[in-house]
C-alpha cells in the first residue's frame, strides 16, 4: 500500500487461480503488503494506546479502505493519509465524501519514500511489512520532530526494535533505533485479525523520538555499529583483526591524514537528518544482521604479508580496544553507552568509520 510498485493484474476464475480477497469490491494483494485490519476491537485498542489528543494532526501510512482512518478522524484534529494504490485512494474518497470528516482528511497519493511529509504530531499506521526498516528511519529523520509513532510491524521486526543487550534478537537495528528513540512494545496481534491473513503474527510498537538527539556523528556511529554487528557473537578483538576491517579503517585513516582534517571538521560536515534516514536503507527490509560464517583465522591480517605501516595501524586498533577493555567483549552484549565510549576512543585515536 505505502511502498513498492502497483501492477495491474488480471484475475481469472476457475481451477488453478487463487481467489482474491475483497473489501468494498477491491481485491487485496498480499505481495503488495495489503492486509486490512478487520477486527474493530483491535482498531479501538490501537487508538486507545496511541494517546491521541483532540488537537493532534495524525499521519497514517497505507490507510487501505479506511477502517483505521475513520477512528483516527474521530480521535484527532485531522488525518494525513499517504496511499500508493490509486484504487484505495478512490475508496477512501468515496467512503468519506459528504461526511463531516471529509474536510479533516487529506489524502496524498504516492510513494511515502518520495513524498515530503508535512507537519504531524503523531503517526499511527498499519504498514506493508517490507518497508519496515526504511520507513522507521524516514520517520525518525523527519523534522520537526513528532511526538510519537504507533505502528504495526511484523512480530520479529518489532522484537528486534525493543531487544536489549544479551537478547537473541538484539542487533544493529535495535542499537540504532534506541539511540534515536524510546521504543516500547504495546500489543501482540494475531494474523487472523487481518483480511487476507498474513503468514506471520504482528505487534504494535510505540516509537518516541529523543529530543535532543545524542551529540554524535550518526554516520560515524553506524559505521562502527555495522562492523561490530556483522558478527555480533565474535569478540571485538577478533572482528577488528579481520583483513577487510583493517583495510577499510586504514584507508579512512590515511585519507584523513592526507587531507589534514581535524575530528571537529569531520563531524561538522554531517547532515543529521540525511544520515538518520539512510540508516534504514542500509539495513534492508528487516534490519537483520549478516554473519557469513567464515572462520576468524581466514579473516585475520597476516602480519608477515603486510608492510610495517599496516602492522603499526593494526597495533593502533588493538591498543584502542585494550584501552577501553573491549578486546574480549561482544557486540551482542554492549549497551548504548559502551558503543558511545568505544566510538569516542577510536575517534580520539584518529580512527574513523565513514
Name the shape in a single word: elongated
SSE string:
EEEHEHEHEEHEHHEEEHHHHHHHH
Measured as a percent range, the helix fraction is: 25-40%
Q: What strand order characterises the main sheet?
A: 6-5-4-7-8-11-9
Query: Oligomeric state of the chains?
Result: single chain
Instruction: Give the N-to-C terminal Cα separation.
Output: 34 Å
**What proportion of the residues form beta strands (DSSP E)?**
15-25%
Calculate the mean pLDDT score and round it. Answer: 84
Radius of gyration: 23 Å
Provide a descriptive summary of the structure in words.
40% of the residues lie in helices and 16% in strands. With 354 residues, the protein is an alpha/beta fold. The strands form 3 sheets. Strands 6-5-4-7-8-11-9 form a 7-stranded mixed β-sheet, with helices on both faces. It has a two-stranded antiparallel sheet with strand order 1-2. Strand 5, helix 3 and strand 6 form a beta-alpha-beta unit. Helix 1 packs parallel to helix 2. The longest helix has 17 residues, at 243-259. The radius of gyration is 23 Å and the shape is elongated. Mean pLDDT is 84; it is low at 1-20, 29-33, 262-270 and 291-306. It holds the Pfam family RrnaAD. Its EC number is 2.1.1.-. Residues 288-303 have a biased composition (Acidic residues). This is rRNA adenine N(6)-methyltransferase.
Amino acid at each position: 500500500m505505502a511502498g513498492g510498485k502497483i501492477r495491474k493484474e488480471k484475475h481469472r476464475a476457475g481451477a488453478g487461480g487463487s481467489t482474491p480477497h475483497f473489501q468494498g469490491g477491491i481485491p487485496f494483494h498480499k505481495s503488495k503488503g495489503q492486509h486490512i485490519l478487520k477486527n474493530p476491537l483491535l482498531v479501538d485498542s490501537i487508538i486507545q494506546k496511541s494517546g491521541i489528543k483532540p488537537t493532534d494532526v495524525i499521519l497514517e501510512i497505507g490507510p487501505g479502505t479506511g477502517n483505521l482512518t475513520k477512528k483516527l478522524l474521530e480521535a484527532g484534529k485531522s488525518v494525513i493519509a499517504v496511499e500508493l494504490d490509486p484504487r484505495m485512494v478512490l475508496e477512501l474518497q468515496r467512503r468519506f465524501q459528504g461526511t463531516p470528516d471529509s474536510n479533516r482528511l487529506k489524502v496524498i497519493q504516492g510513494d511515502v519514500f518520495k513524498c515530503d511529509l508535512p507537519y504531524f504530531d503523531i503517526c499511527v499506521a498499519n504498514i506493508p511489512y517490507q518497508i519496515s526498516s526504511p520507513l522507521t528511519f524516514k520517520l525518525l529523520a523527519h523534522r520537526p520532530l513528532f511526538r510519537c509513532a504507533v505502528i504495526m510491524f511484523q512480530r520479529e521486526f518489532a522484537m528486534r526494535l525493543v531487544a536489549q543487550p544479551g537478547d537473541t534478537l538484539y542487533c544493529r537495528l535495535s542499537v540504532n533505533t534506541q539511540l534515536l528513540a524510546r521504543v516500547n512494545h504495546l500489543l501482540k496481534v494475531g494474523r487472523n485479525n487481518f483480511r487476507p491473513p498474513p503468514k506471520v503474527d504482528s505487534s504494535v510498537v510505540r516509537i518516541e523520538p529523543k529530543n535532543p538527539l545524542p551529540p554524535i556523528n550518526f554516520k560515524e556511529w553506524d559505521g562502527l555499529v555495522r562492523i561490530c554487528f556483522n558478527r555480533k557473537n565474535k569478540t571485538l578483538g577478533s572482528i577488528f583483526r579481520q583483513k577487510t576491517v583493517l583495510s577499510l579503517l586504514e584507508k579512512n585513516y590515511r585519507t584523513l591524514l592526507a587531507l589534514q582534517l581535524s575530528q571537529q571538521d569531520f563531524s561538522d560536515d554531517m547532515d543529521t537528518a540525511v544520515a538518520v534516514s539512510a540508516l534504514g536503507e542500509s539495513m534492508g527490509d528487516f534490519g537483520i544482521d549478516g554473519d557469513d560464517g567464515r572462520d576468524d583465522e581466514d579473516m585475520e591480517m597476516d602480519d608477515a604479508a603486510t608492510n610495517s605501516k599496516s602492522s603499526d595501524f593494526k597495533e593502533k586498533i588493538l591498543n584502542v580496544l585494550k584501552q577501553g577493555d573491549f578486546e574480549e567483549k561482544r557486540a551482542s552484549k554492549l549497551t548504548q553507552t559502551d558503543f558511545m565510549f568505544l566510538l569516542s576512543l577510536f575517534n580520539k585515536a584518529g580512527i574513523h568509520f565513514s
